[in-house]
Model the fold of this input.
Amino acid sequence: MVKLGHGGIDMKIGRRDFLKAAAGAAGLVISDKVQAMASRSNMDSKIYKIERRKLGKTGAEVSIIGMGGIVVMNLEQQDANKIVADAFERGINYFDVAPSYGDAQLRLGPALKPWRDKCFLACKSGKRDRAGVEAEIKESLNALETDHFDLYQLHGITDVVKDVDAALGKGGAMEAIIEAKKNGVVRNIGFSAHSPEAAIAAMRKFDFDTILYPVNFGSHYKSGFECEVVSEAKRRGMGILAIKAMMKGTATENSKKKHPKCWYEPIDDPGLVRLALSWTLGQGVSACLPPGDENLFGMALGMAGDLRPLTKDEQRQLEEVAKGLEPAFPIASV
Done:
């Protein structure tokens, strides 16, 4: 078991650094990786029907496993088409992407086009001003070859003043998103966050439809990182979308080489992946987004139809695993 380093990490900068590195290593992503991913996704001989859950007050139903756009980042279009087609045919209807994910929008748009009307497409913006978001909405609509987003989110809010107050204040990002909703371009409004302070502040300032937030067994057993945020989101009837369910902790040199699209060290043992996903789905969330690595997404897809509530022994097993980890998301007061 890998022992993680002590202390917190800079989530915002770390993620951006890893995405830039992954984009620079585009030549490493080749068709045999796509074949490996397909093999993972078909790890069970039986094709399971993936459960769908209501996404809070949105009225939509989403597959319990979603697909992050980073999965198709840096791929040839034909390979992206194969991955998206396989995911859709196996029951995935929830897709999430952002302008900051390299060329992911350009790959996902054409790949998703045959099934666009049958899917729930979520997009995000890291801009905090109205003009910036207006520009990114237009850019994303064009790249994704669509006329609307089922969900549009403030991306990666971490600081109450710089992110929440700025985006929700006069001339802020939310003005553009609300206007887009009035015009039918955006159907639901949400946000993603790695900070409990920012998440709670955002929910208190605006009636969001969804939250995209880390819900991970290791951070839960070590610090209860997600508890207050998830509880508040439930109280408000929000749809809860989980990230980092398959996260082990901060990235290591080995994990960077093995999973260049992941800015953290992911869980890649199938048995533990199954337990980790099942645990997260047992916390009242609607769906999980696996890591952007093709093989890890394929692994999650392959077991998506067979995820079930954990037994007490399995819960104890995860507690034991968590004891050997340092929390990647330290608890903070809210």
User: Anything to note?
Assistant: The chain has one domain: 11-323. The longest strand covers residues 151-157. The chain has 14 helices and twelve strands. The two ends are 32 Å apart (CA to CA).
